[in-house]
Amino acid sequence: MLAGDPVLVDVVPAAQAIPTLGEHTILHAGPPIEWARMCGPMRGAVMGIAVFEGWAPDLATAGSMADGGEFSFHPNHHFNAVGPMTGLTTLSQPVLVVENRTFGNRAYCTINEGLGKVMRFGGNDKEVLDRLAWLRDVLGPAMGATLREMGGMALKSTVAQGLTMGDEMHQRNVACSGLTLRELAPVMAGNANDSAALAEMLTFIGGNHQFFLNIAMALGKALMDPVRDIDGSSVVTAMSRNGTDFGIRVSGTGDTWFVAPVEQPEGLYFPGFTEADANPDMGDSTIIETIGLGGFAMAAAPAVAGFVGAGSASEAANFTRAMGEITVAENPEWTIPALDYQGVPAAIDIRLVVETGRTPTINTGIAHREQGVGQVGAGVVRAPMDCFEQALVSFAESLGVA
Amino acid sequence: MLAGDPVLVDVVPAAQAIPTLGEHTILHAGPPIEWARMCGPMRGAVMGIAVFEGWAPDLATAGSMADGGEFSFHPNHHFNAVGPMTGLTTLSQPVLVVENRTFGNRAYCTINEGLGKVMRFGGNDKEVLDRLAWLRDVLGPAMGATLREMGGMALKSTVAQGLTMGDEMHQRNVACSGLTLRELAPVMAGNANDSAALAEMLTFIGGNHQFFLNIAMALGKALMDPVRDIDGSSVVTAMSRNGTDFGIRVSGTGDTWFVAPVEQPEGLYFPGFTEADANPDMGDSTIIETIGLGGFAMAAAPAVAGFVGAGSASEAANFTRAMGEITVAENPEWTIPALDYQGVPAAIDIRLVVETGRTPTINTGIAHREQGVGQVGAGVVRAPMDCFEQALVSFAESLGVA
Fold first, then answer.
1. How many angstroms separate the CA atoms of B208 and B216, rounded?
2. Are A63 and A192 in a shared domain?
3. Are residues B49 and B143 in the same domain?
4. A146, A153, A165, A184, best to mutate vs chain B, most B CBs in 10 Å
5. Is position A203 within any domain?
6. CA of A191: which chain B residue's CA is closest?
């Protein structure tokens, strides 16, 4: 995990990255789930993406097609991919390609849509679909060409810099998004033959403080996949939620999902919204915590502690210290200035989680529980203990010690 | 001082900003100084700028002209301007224009040249002069047009964000330089008709972590100038060094400079250099500390504490706390996350400096003592106590209490 060398190398259509991704196939966040059990925002996103892909003429028809079993649903995680919140990946969407140069594997994530009404929070109107089309037709191809010309963008050092600039890479990506723009903009400018389109792309990236989130997610997936299937390893390789269930995977138990009902985040709500509007926890973005960032790196990002309602800046370090109790290493390349350059706590051990009774702290956005509304707040949520207990029993059985 | 509203509004040739700036007139950093007493790097810069302006055909002739008294030298501070290190301002150089919208005054500073061989550290060869020509002919006009189209860029909020991202605005401007690029790039792209030139400009800004330093300096000058000449005010309005002398100005004593020999920074040296190579402290950039940033905001920038050799990250807060003892306010709009959002210590009071025996801590670059070499390190330096003692006596005399 610590030896990985993630590099953002390309942006390509999902169908090119994942050749088995066909018509009417929809990848989603979290462990496996069928249409009938999907939460409101994920249903909204499914209907929207079916219209976007041209599989349905309108949202109502898309809903009927889903009811009729016409779509095939699979977790992103089963296809080397991750997606934020609803996390839908379908064939024509552009995906970021992160290559782990140490191990040769690749991971994929769609491009962050920005704030406001977006599909990852269940939005599905014309504004949402028009933006997805622009990502597919304009920004995606331009970013791909730029990254190929650059020979890729090394991400380990970007994250290291971000940690010294107040980012924890889950709810705060201000610095890393800026660092990314700084690397891409000159090359994009050199290639541009339409200054208005270039200006629009730079405005989009520069105006989206979470632009780096999806890059960090693909980075996380690229780092953790080589850790899968190590005999006797009790390290968590994935944590993920589909808005209904929370699931984890553990290295020594292969690709089995250990699943429990997802919890409700505790946090702060945007004006006009309350906890009653909130959908339960959702998204593959917990891959960020799985690699020791997000809630695990809260000490690097005191501003996030306030944003997610987790207390004062000086209390942020407590979250990082607590996560040190359930991890087996510190990452010497990703360090936190406020802790005198202590490394972020890395590699969650299910034995330590069960032994200490501490579950991972996750910084998360909060979606409205109904489709089509969008983000209503941000908060902190705990991974359910039940996932870790199930995993530990299974792990012990696999070793013959249960 | 706290009410000021600094906005970067334009980039124009210095002769346009400062109409009294004529041929053979050279503005420099620090209090007044004649050619005979100038240090090596400032002499090197003077010779270089004379060639750049076309006043001399080569460096040797420029030196002879300086010996012959053919140049007229004045402090930047006498012309609403500031300049880093040697700090030379001459008529054809482009200057950043910061307007304090609360009080209507304007302040000027040249554009940061980047790292490596640069005139502010005494460089004067073809590489240095070619870069100055590019700033004059390409980047300066493009930035000016961009800022006029944007209606200016508000700087108070940029600094506030920078403080949450590890900048102290003197030796670290990584975040603010990135935030500036993010605001300028889309507009520059929209105006561009030469994609190669645009790419070169974005590469220059994006590749220079100290790009924002000169903007912050003009901001500092724009904030402090309205504080000048307040009867009975013992607040420091300027601190500055010319490489030979350190000078301060105090509000209640008008534009008098209180001067003492400048001190030697203590710091870390780049590979191959030692303290024996170091020029004494130099530049108008101490305007940064005068407004409560730089060494005063060290707690916001633990990475700087390491860079300037001032101890571990956790010790950075000690610098900020100590500066709180010699200032009369905290800035409620510029706050430090690691101190639970305490404001930076603002408004140095000469009475508190003399009473506590603590002089201001300044984070500074270190120039080679010989002309033409450049930066050799970075460190911390103290303002000489003698300046404050002289100022206090004069201040007391002005009030009839000495």
1. 14
2. yes
3. yes
4. A165
5. yes
6. B195
Q: Determine contact, residues B125/B117, Cβ cutoff 8 Å.
A: yes
Residues A233 and A173 in one domain: no
Q: B58-83: per-residue pLDDT in tens?
A: 999 999 999 999 999 999 999 999 99
Q: How wide is the angle at C-alpha A347 spanned by C-alphas A344 and A348, nearest 5°?
A: 110
- The candidate with the shortest Cα–Cα distance to B89, out of B109, B104, B105, is B109
A338 and B196 in contact by Cβ < 8 A?
no
ipTM, two decimals, is 0.90
Enclosing domain of residue B364 = 228-398
In a domain, B49, yes or no: yes
Task: Name the residue among B166, B183, B190 with its Cβ closest to that of A199.
Answer: B190
A15-29: b or e for each residue (b if 16 or more CB lie within 10 Å)?
bebbeebeeebbbbb
pLDDT in tens, B30-47: 999 999 999 999 999 999
Given A185, A196, A341, which is nearest B202 (Cβ)?
Answer: A185
For residues B281 and B151, state if they share a domain.
Answer: no
Decide if B40 contacts B122 (C-beta within 8 A).
yes
Determine the 3-state secondary structure of A345 from DSSP.
strand
Residues in chain A: 402
Cβ atoms of B377 and B270 closer than 8 Å: yes
Burial of A227 (0-12, 13-18, 19+ CB in 10 A): buried
Does residue A303 fall inside a structural domain?
yes
DSSP-derived secondary structure for A379-391: EEEEPPHHHHHHH
The tokens describing B309, both together, are: 């050799």
Nearest to A216 by CA among A117, A334, A303, A122: A334
Q: How far is CA B81 from CA B14, B128, B203, in A?
A: 10, 22, 27
Residue in B182, B196, B338 closest to A302 by CB: B338
Measured between beta carbons, which residues in chain A are less than 8 angstroms from residue B300? none
- Nearest Cα of chain B lies from the Cα of A342 at a distance, in angstroms, of 11
When divided into structural domains, chain A yields a total of 2
| Interchain pair A189, B178: CB under 8 A | no
Cα–Cα dist A379/A398, whole Å: 36
Is the predicted pLDDT of residue A304 greater than 90, yes or no?
Answer: no
- Distance from the Cα of B379 to chain A's closest Cα (Å) equals 19
Interchain pair B166, A337: CB under 8 A: yes
> Are the Cβ atoms of A190 and B174 closer than 8 angstroms?
no
Q: Which of B166, B199, B313 sits opposite A165 (nearest CB)?
A: B166
**Paired tokens of A141:** 């191809």
A1 part of a folded domain: no
A185 and A231 inside one domain: no
CA gap B164, B292 in Å, rounded: 15
- Cβ B313–A179 below 8 Å, yes or no? no
How wide is the angle at C-alpha A314 spanned by C-alphas B158 and B341, nearest 5°?
A: 35
Give me the DSSP letters along B158-175. HHHHHHTTT--SSS--HH
A192–B198 CB contact, under 8 Å: yes
Please give the structure tokens belonging to residue B213: 């330093």
Supply the DSSP symbol for A168. Answer: -
Q: Which residues of A touch B175 (CB under 8 A)?
A: 165, 175, 178
Tell how strand A94-100 and strand A153-154 pair up. Answer: unpaired
Q: Do A340 and B166 touch (CB under 8 A)?
A: no
* Residue B402 pLDDT: 73
Separation of alpha carbons B341 and A306, rounded Å:
11
Closest Cα in chain B, distance from residue A103 (Å): 30
pLDDT at B195 over 80: yes
- Same domain, residue pair B110 and B63: yes
pTM: 0.94
Rounded CA separation B113/A56 (Å): 56
